[in-house]
Structure prediction request, 136 residues.
Amino acid sequence: MAITKRHSLRIAAVGVVSAASVVLAGTVASAATPAAAASAPQATAAKAGITAKPSVTSVKAWQLFRVTGTATGLKAGSKMVLQQKQGAKWVSLPAVTPLSSKGTYSLGVKLGLKGKNDLRIVSGSTASPVFNVTVR
Prediction:
């Protein structure tokens, strides 16, 4: 089952100042504007990214192996999901693990589809580069 919901990070700054508040509190309004502008670059600086590395490149059918990696820009506890390319679609497999507070994860995997398997780890709309494991 492919992930149908895609989440994206959107940051918007909206300031509404009426003419009366500009006249009455012009100093307060001008002091608040730089603080809001200064916080926006910090929020966009953390771009999300995921790395993934399988413990092996070739396994027997249903043999256990591990996929480990790190994630940046994601919250601790985020679900790290293994996806497999089946035809033209990415299908989420029942292999899920939470992201640790240190930004790492380790996932035990068993595959039964013989041949070269294109795999990736996803969390929300962020995906790792594709890696391959051959099942013989």
User: Anything to note?
Assistant: Helices lie at 19-45. The first helix runs from residue 19 to 45. The CA atoms of residues 72 and 114 lie 32 Å apart. Strands lie at 49-50, 53-54, 58-59, 64-72, 79-86, 89-98, 104-110, 115-123, 126-127, 131-135.
